[in-house]
């Protein structure tokens, strides 16, 4: 009787491998190259075993470097699968109290493999301007500045409005415009002293001890939902006219989180990889 549970466990373990789909087994054993994952419209054919725990799921698709051609765009057309993968984040900080603040390199500490905006889509106007309509259009990221400060921010392509002043996409085309950066915190988020915009306590300090008012603490006690405005440039350096795909780089200027108005927003410069396609 004592061996029956053990026998059942061993049998179940064996059946798990016997009944596993052949595609999964192939994914584990097949050493396919990177192209199975990163090449444009072949991304959906990527094998699980080549991606899991590698960080490649955070990579934008690519097309052959140096590909040239032209993709016509106009009123009624759409751009889709737009992907923006940050590769470098600079934050404006002062090295010392006596030196002027300047952009400095940072290290992405959270999340390390989930920073990419992707599947963004939108419409093209008659002038060649693009208006974002949806997609996975923001990511919450925290970087570590050289002075040891952790800087959280919302990397955003929300409400992106960019214009190329052209009727086609080719090598050298640039889309320039603006984005909206939503607040890193929502109205129900409680800070360490249980203060929030719509919940929690209104005032965490003793009124008598503070003399009834304190301007230095007012910004921490009075929470505000603050949206930011960003600027972005999309630069195209490769075009595949046959598949209507394009790739290149981007540079975005925006602000970091203010903790709902309790601290000054730091300026950020985010650059990285661009991918998209027409239709």
From TrEMBL:
- GO terms for cellular component: photosystem II oxygen evolving complex; plasma membrane-derived thylakoid membrane
Superkingdom, taxonomy of origin: Bacteria
Q: To which species is this protein native?
A: Prochlorococcus marinus (strain MIT 9313)
Please indicate if the UniProt record lists Thylakoid as a keyword: yes
Which gene underlies this protein? Answer: psbO
Is Signal there in the keyword field? yes
Chief location bin: membrane
What the entry lists under InterPro entries is as follows: OMP/PagP_B-barrel, PsbO
Q: Identify this protein by name.
A: Photosystem II extrinsic protein O
Membrane topology, as annotated: Peripheral membrane protein
């Amino acid at each position: 009787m004592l061996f029956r549970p053990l026998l059942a466990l061993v049998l179940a373990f064996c059946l798990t491998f016997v009944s596993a789909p052949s595609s999964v087994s192939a994914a584990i054993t097949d050493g396919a190259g990177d192209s199975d994952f990163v090449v444009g419209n072949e991304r959906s054919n990527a094998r699980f075993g080549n991606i899991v725990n590698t960080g490649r799921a955070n990579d934008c698709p690519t097309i052959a470097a140096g590909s040239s051609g032209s993709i016509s765009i106009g009123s009624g057309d759409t751009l889709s699968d737009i992907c923006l993968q940050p590769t470098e984040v600079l934050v404006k900080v002062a090295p010392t109290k006596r030196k002027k603040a300047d952009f400095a390199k940072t290290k992405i500490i959270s999340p390390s493999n989930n920073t990419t905006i992707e599947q963004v889509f939108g419409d093209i106007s008659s002038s060649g301007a693009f208006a974002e309509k949806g997609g996975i259009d923001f990511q919450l990221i925290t970087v570590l500045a050289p002075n040891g400060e952790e800087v959280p921010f919302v990397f955003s392509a929300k409400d992106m409005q960019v214009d190329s002043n052209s009727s086609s996409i080719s090598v050298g085309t640039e889309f320039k415009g603006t984005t909206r950066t939503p607040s890193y915190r929502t109205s129900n988020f409680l800070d360490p002293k249980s203060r929030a915009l719509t919940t929690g306590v209104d005032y965490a300090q003793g009124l008598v001890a503070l003399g009834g008012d304190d301007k230095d603490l007012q910004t921490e006690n009075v929470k505000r939902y603050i949206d930011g405005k960003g600027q972005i440039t999309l630069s195209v350096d490769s075009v595949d006219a046959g598949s209507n795909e394009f790739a290149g780089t981007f540079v975005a200027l925006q602000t970091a989180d203010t903790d709902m108005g309790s601290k000054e927003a730091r300026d950020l410069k985010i650059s990285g990889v661009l991918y998209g396609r027409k239709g």
